[in-house]
Design goal:
By secondary structure, the protein is an alpha+beta fold. It contains six helices and eight strands. The radius of gyration is 20 Å and the shape is globular. The relative contact order is 0.15.
Length: about 200
């Protein structure tokens, strides 16, 4: 009888532990997926702060303001896996900046330990781009690639497809977000051969 009770207790403990681990692993993925849904459709120069506050994600965030500029910011990290050294430390961030109550920039960042940062940015500053979408590498004088930045303007359909073009599920992978095209599927609009260099597309 005691043996049976002990076995049941062990099994229950294992099930609870498994459920807890699974929740902790998947929580950052679900959190950032919800954020992407509410970032979707924001158009710089048009979307107002009132529009943003109608979305659940922004209702839960406290903006950081300085003068006429306010920034809404959210981060999601694979804290459970990385704390157990089961995956490299990875973090996805979402930023929306407003000036005088109107969206000015929408930025998504993918920070990866010992790898170049990835950025997806809706901006009006497209002077270095020949079209409404462009990809560029950020390389300082030491010639080491530090970041890859994809810029798009307020007319690009990317702004309406963020849940499709950003994949936070890598936060639940043991290898983390090591594959650029996997975590940022929008890069597939560029020729994979050219994606390692500065490129532009319509």
């Amino acid at each position: 009888m005691k043996t049976a009770i002990l076995i049941i207790a062990v099994v229950l403990a294992l099930l609870v532990g498994y459920a807890f681990a699974r929740y902790e692993i998947n929580a950052p993925v679900k959190q950032f997926s919800r954020a992407l849904n509410d970032l979707n459709g924001i158009t710089i120069g048009e979307t107002t702060e009132s529009d943003l506050l109608a979305r659940p994600f922004f209702q839960k965030q406290e903006p950081m303001c300085s003068g006429a500029t306010c920034i809404y910011h959210f981060e999601s990290r694979n804290a459970f896996l990385s704390s157990l050294h089961l995956a490299p430390n990875n973090e996805l961030g979402a930023f929306v900046s407003l000036h005088n109550g109107v969206a000015e920039t929408v930025l998504i960042t993918i920070w990866r330990q010992n790898k170049p940062q990835l950025m997806l940015k809706q901006t009006a500053d497209m002077k270095d781009c020949k079209s409404g979408v462009c990809l560029r590498n950020l390389t300082p004088p030491n010639k080491i690639l530090t970041a890859r930045e994809l810029l798009y303007d307020s007319q690009s359909e990317i702004r309406n497809r963020l849940p499709k073009y950003v994949n936070p599920s890598c936060l639940a992978f043991r290898r983390g977000c090591d594959n650029d095209f996997e975590v940022l599927p929008v890069l597939h609009i560029f020729d994979p051969v050219q994606a390692g260099a500065t490129a532009s597309a319509k």
